[in-house]
TrEMBL record, chains A, B:
Its cofactor is Zn(2+). This is Guanine deaminase. One of its GO terms (biological process) is guanine metabolic process. It is an enzyme of class 3 (hydrolase). It comes from Komagataeibacter saccharivorans.
Amino acid sequence: MGEFIIQGTVLTPVSATRVDMGRAVVHVAADGRIAARHAHDTPAAADLLAHAARSGIPVRTLGLEQLLMPGFADLHVHAPQWPQMGRALDLPLRDWLEQRTFPLEARFADPDFAGPVYEEMVTTLLANGTTTAVFFATIHEESSLLLARICLHHGLRAHVGLVAMDDPELCPEGYRNTSVEQALAATRRFIHAVRALPGNESGLVRPMVTPRFIPACTDGLLHGLGVMAAEEDCLIQTHCSESDWEHDYVRQRTGVNDTVALDRFGLLRRGTVLAHSCFMTEDDMALVQARGAAIAHCPLSNAYFAGGVLPLRTAWQAGVHVGLGTDISGGYSPSVAVNAAMAVTAARMLDTGNDPARPQAQRGRPGSRISFAEGLWLATRGGAQALGIDAGQLEVGMAFDAIEIDRTAPGSNILPPIHGEDGAAEDVAQQILCNMGRPNIRTVWVAGRQVHGTDAAPD
Amino acid sequence: MGEFIIQGTVLTPVSATRVDMGRAVVHVAADGRIAARHAHDTPAAADLLAHAARSGIPVRTLGLEQLLMPGFADLHVHAPQWPQMGRALDLPLRDWLEQRTFPLEARFADPDFAGPVYEEMVTTLLANGTTTAVFFATIHEESSLLLARICLHHGLRAHVGLVAMDDPELCPEGYRNTSVEQALAATRRFIHAVRALPGNESGLVRPMVTPRFIPACTDGLLHGLGVMAAEEDCLIQTHCSESDWEHDYVRQRTGVNDTVALDRFGLLRRGTVLAHSCFMTEDDMALVQARGAAIAHCPLSNAYFAGGVLPLRTAWQAGVHVGLGTDISGGYSPSVAVNAAMAVTAARMLDTGNDPARPQAQRGRPGSRISFAEGLWLATRGGAQALGIDAGQLEVGMAFDAIEIDRTAPGSNILPPIHGEDGAAEDVAQQILCNMGRPNIRTVWVAGRQVHGTDAAPD
């Protein structure tokens, strides 16, 4: 992969609340990082272009209707639930799990079943602009390793977790680890195998320690996984304080909230990704902040399975890292943009409340709303930061994980500016989150490598 | 426009709660209505195909991955707000109106400004599968009539309202009717002009009496419009009980809720479309039902500007007609499918409540949830029924307002069934509402005329 230069309109979050947009010349180095970014029509930009011309570095120039923006981070995807995305959400949670989800996940014992599903999932996520993904796989080592290989092959920056779940009380007979020892040995082998994958020297694909959630795991397994995460210096993912049912179950079993229980098991560390977390208290959030762990906010899924909206503003005020998760298939959309728009919408609904039968003063939680600029941050830098990855902003030093948006593509629902008035950066960011569809996504890069699109080779 | 036969998988709501899917042969008569629909592999289907062969009636055959379904009805679109779709939703309502919306609408005084905007809007709505739309235009007769002409030209089944707004208290100086008499005369001329448009003999495009909402209109104007609607036997649209602010304003000015006030002005009739209606009481709903009026439910917009979720289940239990509205640009998506999915999501959030800080028992309004089958009904037959139109189901006697969905189109986020197992009709309906994008919409027909797509001429 060689260095290249790309010039065009760059849209990037500069902080959680501020979006920047302007014509720029960007130098992507051979290591896939942004070596330089200069505003168009500056001497530095001219120098860079002159240097490129002298050195034969390819230059790609985008039109006025194209935009370069950071790729999306999806912090919570159940890879084996891909075939039921957009299905079965009318079912109650128990039926959803027992009738649909567990039997589907169990089929991934067969790598021949898993392969085509994971192949289609990875390419579809890339086509939707996801450049970083965090996957729950299944308990099956071979299929889960296949997922890691497929991510690596297609160039998706990915985190893959072999799921651990051993409690016979809550896990089905045919789909659970047979013992604590079996689960721990499998996880250890999996961590080593992912790290040793040929072509993975840069760590594009990383393993994750993945207890499904406290209710599915025995204390012995949770403790063992905490020890292993420290020994292996491995990221962790699990579900946390998702719903009343789950929250109450954990309190009943452990006497404390999920965060405290996870911390006691050694599972709350920098790089731990806690899916959902709707029912976290301020004390929980302070603990999560102290440990450097992060929340994967899944606003669409939460409407169906959590029964509450994460008080995101409160989490931010506590200094907690937050990114977005599609939670496929508890959430129905593979698009992080759709989920970012839903995060803004859900925060509005938490802010104002939603039941008109209550008086206004007793309805909402004022101060909860977030802006679309904040939605963009969540979808990009927020997620990358949660994972400790230098990506999510098109800034010098960051990996070039980027999307080329074509606002005038056939089939676009992003309206081009009327009479050429381009509007504020915030408006454009909002249009992208609200109205972007697959036709708008022309090219996607991860670490400087083109991973989606056919016409974007530097010219 | 000649008759034709189309055979393929048909997905259609049969009631508010039931979806049907199966291979069928459909006969579309020259008047644009469905003359026959027979299940595939029945003698009646074979007879129909033999008749077509003998008579030279064109037959189009869809593949197994295509689906024929009814087109969508969008009951609430602010046509002049099209250029700011997906923009400015972070602004408070007052700033949104004063800084953005009213100045934008005022520009439609110029038909040269309006023409390209309306042209793009109508073709984009058709491309998103909308076959029936209800538009608020502006107070400008020439531009609003141009909108009606553009709808007619492109074959969109449309309802166009010349907006009436005359109260200097709440309407801006440069954008309001100058007197009750001026507003009434303009509305009367507009009704006649739309009905007299060449090519509109079948009434594909209908005028609507359109008081913006009670706060923008004087009593004299509201009364005059009520009288005119009866004299002209014209449909009516307005906003109703949208937000705390609007609801309280009307109560303060009139002493009653919007519905009662509208009824007193003669504005609550069969075919009246009441946008939003979040704050309707059960008494309001009983009155709306008694008058045969309908609600345009705009779940996405309501999250931003209403501060409450319409208790849709309660409205249905009262026997009120309900359809969906995108409420562009209060809502950000031109897709009725997106809004249908949001209706299901919002109903879940009303059902469970959304603030985790409240105890579960005090959080939600249990019983409020709706299914995706009901979401499909809302998006199709519910909306058509509200307007008294025979469309929205692919049944004999209905207009052939239909969409051809290609589940395997390049750029599709609808997952094809794994191993050819197609799943229940409800699952497929849900996938379409949740995951459909423009790439999936191959062809759109209104009243038997192809209005979108290039490759679907009967072969």
